[in-house]
Amino acid sequence: MSRLILPATRSQWRFSTRVLVPVGLVSLFLLAFCGLALVQAVRESDAISIERQVETARRAINNSIDRLGRQQKAVAMWDPAVVQLSRATPNWEWVDTWMGEWLHRNFEHDHVFILNARDEPVYAMFHGVRTSASSFHSVQRELQPLIDHLRNPPDGSEHEDDNGPSGRAGRSPEEATGGGRLLEIFARPVAASATKIVPLTDAVRQQPGSEFILVSVRFLDGDFLQELSQRHLLKAPRWSRTDTASADEVALPLTTDLGDPAGYLIWRPELPGSRTLWDLAPAAALTGGAIVLVVGLLIWSLRRSTLELQASEAHAHHLAFHDILTGLPNRALFNDRLDQALARTRRGDKVAVLTLDLDRFKPVNDTLGHQAGDALIREFARRVSGLLRTSDTLARLGGDEFAIVQVGIADRSDVEALCTRILKTVRQPFDLFGHEVFVGTSIGVALAPEAGDERIDLLRKADIALYHAKDEGRDCYRYFTSVLDETVQLRRQIEDDLRAALATGEGLQVFYQPEVASAGQPVIGLEALVRWQHPTRGLIPPEQFIPIAEETGLIMPLSEWVLRQACAASRRWPDLFVAINLSPVQFRASGFAEGVIEIVRDCGADPRRIELEITEGILLDSGERAGDVLHVLREAGFRIALDDFGTGYSSLSYLRQFEIDKIKIDRSFVQPLGRATGTDAAAVFRAIVTLGRALGLTVTAEGVETEEQKRLIAAMGASEMQGFLFSRAVSEDRVAGLLSRLNGRAQADEAWSPFTSPGTIS
């Protein structure tokens, strides 16, 4: 993708619309938001403060009313007061000193009245000076409900002393007071309270109903306001009959206990939020200016960065959708191109999806290094890209995996022509740092809409066809067919069923095939072979489920199960060895040798009578690790046999390098023996036997089926034989009979087999 260079004016316009305007708007929004949030916080703080001050003022008024009654009790519940007032002519100077003036001096009671039992005023005091008792009549209308409430409580019960009819004087405070009230007297708010004058002790007796009443009145618009300001920190409190509060004042409306308006308490409230706002205003202004400056610097910096970002935008976009190593589209871009192509199939177009995998890439990567592997990947991508049209897409999906979307095809011939060109060009040698390397490629093809029109499903089916191409020898292409899909489904079902069989042990069984000595033919050992009797599919051949087990990791528990069964059974045949096949997957597992030794020990088997069979592929793939594992196993007493010898590399260096005890010549070298065309085969067989004997190895011939083969093999010096001529594999419970028959033969040509029809060895 080429980089796009925009003109300066267009670049500036894009910067303004994409950066400057959004940043400016966001900055203004943030400043406005912060300002509004600050104002709102100030308002809420002020409102909370005002609410608390109103509650404080209301509570102060209520407390003043309540205190009035409590203050009265200091003189109303007093034996001398009762005695003095009970006299025919009380000493009013004493009453002044100890009651009227005392309440004014200590508690600032403005009016003090004393009423006799008939509620007639007998004493009056105003601002600490005794006045005519008749002055009570000027305020009697307002105070009478308070007196009536004291004389006649709402429940109608008479206040009796605590001792009942005996007339003892000790009354409770609740019985002796009528409670305080908020009233309006002389157009002024007052707190008023009425209390019965009763004895405090039993020393003075008083007839119920003869109690004098003490009435106290305190104006709330005088000294009370000064007290309210000093004690509760209300600024400039004042009283007004109407709401005359200014904009910076708060008015608390008051109502008398009778429900009549009692005016308004007005004061200037404390506003901490507003005060804090004014205190912070200079700092806030500086902060706002700093923010504007920072935003300006940020915009300038963004303007510079924009030019650099524009220069790298196209490159970053390219990297997001292309493979770094080859420059080809990656999986994300491939998926997008494939989705676009599949959308056109709904209009009648045809699309081919090809998945490609390099053959023999791993050996190149391992032997020449990752640098050579990367060079091979790049050259492969270059060659294949040159074969495609501009409308087609070649992508690297990862590793040595590639995929092609071929569009606009008329029929299969277009696809086959492309596949043929790819195979041909990839077969040409690759020059990698002075090394000429030959590789190939396997191709799987899925056609749309023939094989489907969903991307994931098509890729899956192309991969299935790719695996089929690899199974059929590589370096070829194969189409996806429904049969292949059924094969995949069958493999998955076999995997699930094998997993279940391993969990329960149901259907799995170990069979044993004898190995005999060439001289005299006594049975000298048994090879353990796993068999699986499927509950619905019948007997599944090992060559069908063993590869699946190796691919899915089930080979580990399966091999361990076979090893345990064979080791346990070997105790029944103390004179024979038991051969057990090892999987390459097992061999590569960490701690494999120690695990085998532990299993044999747990089963109580003798490792000297256990023969472990490996393939040449294990030696090739594992290298030095294979030598270490084999050394540990041989040190533990196990014998090591190289199975299917001659089918792989059959390197003499492997036989010398690794500790091998036996080679088992593959049946492909045995089958031609005894035929007219088997002269070359006999020479090769004799050479292998000679090689094995020269290295001190036991040589076993596999797949012996005729007497002539047996005779020739014995004549050429092979030590042991195995094949259908002697017996097919049998279950453990039939081994005893097999051994009896084979070891009891009188003639070498009287071969016995428990099965009448030929089969294959596995």
From TrEMBL:
PROSITE patterns: EAL, GGDEF. InterPro entries: Biofilm_reg_signaling, CHASE4, EAL_dom, EAL_sf, GGDEF_dom, Nucleotide_cyclase, Rev_trsase/Diguanyl_cyclase. Residues 491-743 form the EAL domain. SUPFAM superfamilies: EAL domain-like, Nucleotide cyclase. Residues 148-177 are annotated as: Disordered. SMART domains: EAL, GGDEF. Residues 349-482 form the GGDEF domain. It holds the Pfam family GGDEF. NCBIfam families: GGDEF. PANTHER family: BIOFILM ARCHITECTURE MAINTENANCE PROTEIN MBAA, DIGUANYLATE CYCLASE DGCP. This is Diguanylate cyclase.
